Amino acid sequence: MFRIPMVSISMRELDRLKCIQGLIDKQLKQKAVAERLGLTVRQLRRLVERYELEGPRGLISKLRDRPGNRRLKQERAEEAFAIIRAQYADFGPTLAAEKLRERHGINLAVETVRSLMTAGGLWLPRRLRPPKVQQPRSRRACIGELVQIDGCEHAWFEDRAPQCTALVYVDDATSRLMVVLFGGSESTFGYFEATRQYIHRYGKPLAFYSDKASIFRINHKTATNGKGHTQFARALFELNIEGLCANTPGAKGRNELRLQRISTVDAANEFMPSFIEDYNRRFGKLPRDRHDAHRPVREDEDLDLTFSWHEARKVTTNLTLQYERKIYMLADNSENRRLIGKYIDVIQFPDGRVEIRAGGQSLPYSTYDRVGVIDQGAVVNHKRLNHALQAAQLLQAQRDP
């Protein structure tokens, strides 16, 4: 029995078939058909010739069922996924793609990495996740899974000393005090120091839970400067620690602290280890799961670099850039001339030291202070207020031996 061959075509190809047939039947004009199909008249004529020779099969793209020229090779995909599974299984696709490029020379798009991780069961697409419902939540199951952080400005020493701020880190699963650090104000560098103390003692938690202060997130919807995240959020991203913000101020009510007969910040910080031990003995709870979710610091994670202030500055035609009312001058050589017109990183460390980097490499520089003295009227960002005051005191001490 003679069997008629079946030809499968798409809706787009079906529309093309109707147009070509209408042209052959002289029901449609050649120019109108070419415009509808997005073809030139010459291309349309060739398509008509193929249709007359091969029938509907001639309208099917010759590239159908053929792998694209830019398709990721199977060997490359398997190599990338093996590295991700062995070293970055707990990373998100964006960070995993970044590490593949930086450490292994494998340059893949984030969506390609997302597809590999999804197919391998390492990533769950957002559309498949259960919807979030704002309800009273239960404590996390194990220590290090979620750590609540907050700063409280208060007259801790009553009338014996000025007000100061206590930065408090509380484990959600156990209600244990993990770190308490006193400082002049609630600043980014203060949280850098407290977070570094935490990681040094316990390791990296899975997530920090904070309020919506500007230290933790960009609150101005119309803000266009920067990279869309704060310095603290950048540091957490580099360490693969999730940052969560509370929706209500009362979401974190377990970090009360009481000090007695302490009148200085240094004395309070010295007293904290014994206070924390006593507090946890009396109020700490056992976690539902004995597993410790803290992770060690990776060999490629530089805490000095992470817990520093990063800003991008543009190199001028004179091989200079400006930061903190100073002019930084780069050496005049062929390598640095390639940086003209480009943005490079200015990194300020907690001790006031400044480093300039391009492509991960430190660049030597000299400085020219336009002012010569600290401008007492300059506006200082509140997030770095305490750090600025300390730097000013150190500079004054150096000038007045």
Features:
alpha+beta; 12 helices; 4-stranded antiparallel β-sheet; Nucleotidyltransferase, domain 5; 5-stranded mixed β-sheet
For the CA atoms, what is the radius of gyration? 31 Å
Mean pLDDT, all residues: 79
Q: Roughly how much helix do the residues carry, as a percent range? A: 25-40%
* CATH topology assignment of the largest domain: Nucleotidyltransferase, domain 5
Helix and strand composition category: alpha+beta
Count the beta strands.
12
Shape: elongated
Tally of domains: 3
Number of helices: 12
Poorly predicted sequence stretches spanning 5 or more consecutive residues: 222-226, 248-259, 371-383
Write down the CATH class of the largest domain.
Alpha Beta
Tell me what portion of residues adopts beta-strand conformation.
15-25%
What CATH architecture of the largest domain would you give?
2-Layer Sandwich
Compute the separation of the termini in Å.
Answer: 108 Å
Strand order of the largest sheet: 3-2-1-4-5
Describe the sheet with the most strands: 5 strands, mixed
Order of helices and strands: HHHHHHEEEHEHEHHEEEHEEEEH
Q: What features would you describe in this structure?
A:
With 401 residues, the protein is α+β, with helices and mostly antiparallel strands. The chain has 3 domains: 13-59; 74-125; 140-307 and 371-401, Nucleotidyltransferase, domain 5 (2-Layer Sandwich). Helix content is 34%, strand content 16%. It is built from 12 helices and 12 strands. It has helices at residues 11-24, 30-37, 41-54, 74-87, 93-104, 110-119, 188-202, 231-238, 265-283, 303-306, 334-337, 385-399; strands at residues 147-154, 164-171, 177-183, 207-210, 242-245, 309-314, 320-323, 326-330, 343-348, 354-358, 361-363, 365-369. The strands form 3 sheets. The protein has a 5-stranded mixed β-sheet. A 4-stranded antiparallel β-sheet has the order 6-9-10-11, with no helix packed on it. Helix 8 (231-238) links the parallel strand 4 (207-210) and strand 5. Helix 5 crosses helix 6 (110-119). It is elongated and about 100 Å long. The termini are far apart.
